[in-house]
Amino acid sequence: MSRDTIQRYFEAFNAGDTPAMLDCLSEDVAHHVNEGRIRTGKALFSKFCDHMSACYKEKLTDMVIFVSEDGRRAAAEFVVNGTYLNTDPGLPEARGQKYVLPAGSFFTLEGGKITRVTTYYNLADWERQVA
User: Fold this and answer.
1) Which domain holds residue 123?
2) Which tens digits make up the pLDDT trace of 47-104?
3) Of 4, 53, 59, 64, which is the most exposed, with the fewest CB atoms less than 10 Å away?
4) CA torsion 118→102→127→37, rounded to 10°?
5) Rounded CA gap, 5 and 39, in Å?
6) What is the rounded CA–CA span in Å between residue 26 and residue 19?
7) Whole-structure pTM over 0.70, yes or no?
8) Number of domains in the chain
9) 81 contact partners, CB below 8 Å, separation of at least 6
10) Residue 89 sits in a domain of what CATH number?
């Protein structure tokens, strides 16, 4: 079930289907953002997704999912293929730049739902690509 939950989460991401992503999460999900503060709860996760969709169009490829034997933790390694659509405050100006960025996410799961999402990527590499 854990692998299925993670797979559904990423399929929803690639489809741009935030409600389906939210369905994979616990109500009190802890979202650890790369270079940012922890956001707690589905409402803040949804708001983050809305912001990201406004600024970026991304598709994840080369996905590899790892799940612990007890199914309580998982990780995924993937490549982010994106377009920078609109300037994200504090970051370089958007001009439709394309980028390809290795990244990874770590998860905690309980009762078939994701209770923690932690995503990492190299921000300096992204900034170099869109500069």
Assistant:
1) 2-130
2) 999 999 999 999 999 999 999 999 999 999 999 999 999 999 999 999 999 999 999 9
3) 64
4) 0
5) 20
6) 13
7) yes
8) 1
9) 58, 59, 60, 61, 98, 99, 100
10) 3.10.450.50
